[in-house]
Design a protein that fits this description.
Elements: E1 13-21, E2 27-35, E3 40-44, H1 51-59, E4 66-71, E5 74-75, H2 78-81, E6 84-87, H3 99-109, H4 114-127, H5 143-155, E7 161-165, H6 173-188, E8 192-196, H7 200-206, E9 209-214, E10 217-223, H8 224-228, E11 234-239, H9 242-251, E12 255-263, E13 266-272, H10 279-288, E14 293-298, H11 303-310
Parallel strand pairs: 3-8, 3-9, 6-7, 7-8
Antiparallel strand pairs: 1-2, 1-4, 4-5, 9-10, 11-13, 11-14, 12-13
Helix pairs in contact: 3-4, 3-5, 5-6
Length: 325
């Protein structure tokens, strides 16, 4: 298990060999991660990879079959989880709730007195420019402001760790930028953030570290730049003639797999090439067969490109015929 340097603050979160199996066979089998103070960690995986199960184990909504969750250097407990703030993917505020009351209620749930909870709610609403709308109901706020109030509920008790499930879902760029500002302020005070997201661009822009889950296990944990180095050498190609594509890819010593849906008669392919084969060689081979190429896009050496490689078979991409080497 990773250890914090001597005399340094303990890791707000450590998950070691976490496993949980459901009756249907899904769950997690070997999840590991460590968050340090002042860090933002992206938690990435396709639907069904085990992200929700892991988050539930962290916040105490389920008991794992094996493995351990440690908070602030100690085994997870009710007292330790009082220092944790959580934003679920399913938003929990009702339309008739007033913003100030909702924030104060969540603060009181975490131990603040009624007076302190309302003072904290007022300060937070002023921080995001809603000081004049403390009596506004959630239904009267814009979607962005309602989402910010939900975030304020999670940080009302001044937690040291935030666990967020798809915090940017459905928000426009302005609302996303406002949330990012709140996160930056939180981490500047030493708080750690773990957030689950499907947006590689958001994770790459905001995160120091990333944890990638595949088929219920951690397949990568580390700095975003280190993850990006795992991006494969290849291209996305869209064309009509599948057999001809596979023939060309085979001749180049590569592999090809298809996305599950077609655009008209054209199918989009992910083609992985040997490192010594340049992209133009594939385009030239396709052109020599007289193929109409509707799309040709190199796989970028970024987090998204790395994700598809690291996530292996647990991805939205459906394996097609592999070209023979």
């Amino acid at each position: 298990m990773p250890q914090s340097p001597q005399n340094a603050a303990p890791a707000p979160l450590q998950v070691t060999n976490l496993a949980k199996t459901y009756a249907g066979g899904r769950g997690v089998r070997d999840v590991n991660m460590t968050l340090m103070p002042g860090s933002i960690t992206g938690f990435i995986g396709v639907n069904g990879a085990g992200k929700s199960t892991t988050l539930k184990a962290i916040i105490g909504l389920l008991q794992p079959d094996s493995g351990e969750v440690r908070l602030f250097g100690e085994p997870a407990s009710f007292a330790a989880r009082a220092r944790l703030g959580f934003l679920p993917e399913e938003r929990g505020l009702t339309p008739r709730e007033r913003a100030r009351d909702a924030i104060a209620f969540h603060a009181q749930l975490k131990g603040l007195s009624r007076g302190a909870a309302y003072r904290r709610a007022d300060a937070l609403l002023e921080r995001i420019g809603l000081a004049g709308r403390t009596r506004a109901r959630i239904s009267e706020l814009s979607k962005g402001n309602a989402q910010r109030v939900q975030i304020l509920c999670a940080i009302a008790h001044e937690p040291a760790l935030l666990v967020l499930d798809e915090p940017f879902s459905g928000l426009d760029p302005i609302a996303q930028a406002e949330l990012q500002s709140l996160f930056s302020e939180f981490r500047s005070g030493g708080g750690a953030i773990l957030f689950s997201t499907h947006s590689m661009a958001v994770a790459e822009r905001l995160c120091d570290h990333v944890v990638i889950l595949s088929q219920g296990r951690t397949v990568f944990e580390g700095p975003v730049a280190d993850a990006a180095a795992h991006a494969p050498h290849g291209v996305y190609v869209t064309l009509d003639d599948d057999a001809a594509l596979l023939e060309v890819v085979s001749a180049l010593g590569g592999q090809a797999e298809a996305f599950p849906s077609k655009m008209s008669n054209a199918l989009r392919w992910r083609v992985i090439l040997p490192r010594n084969v340049a992209y133009p060689a594939l385009m030239r081979g396709l052109a020599e067969k007289g193929l109409a190429i509707h799309g040709f896009e190199p796989i970028q050496a970024d987090l998204e490109g790395a994700f598809w490689s690291l996530a292996g078979q647990d991805r939205a991409l459906q394996p097609a015929q592999k070209a023979a080497a």
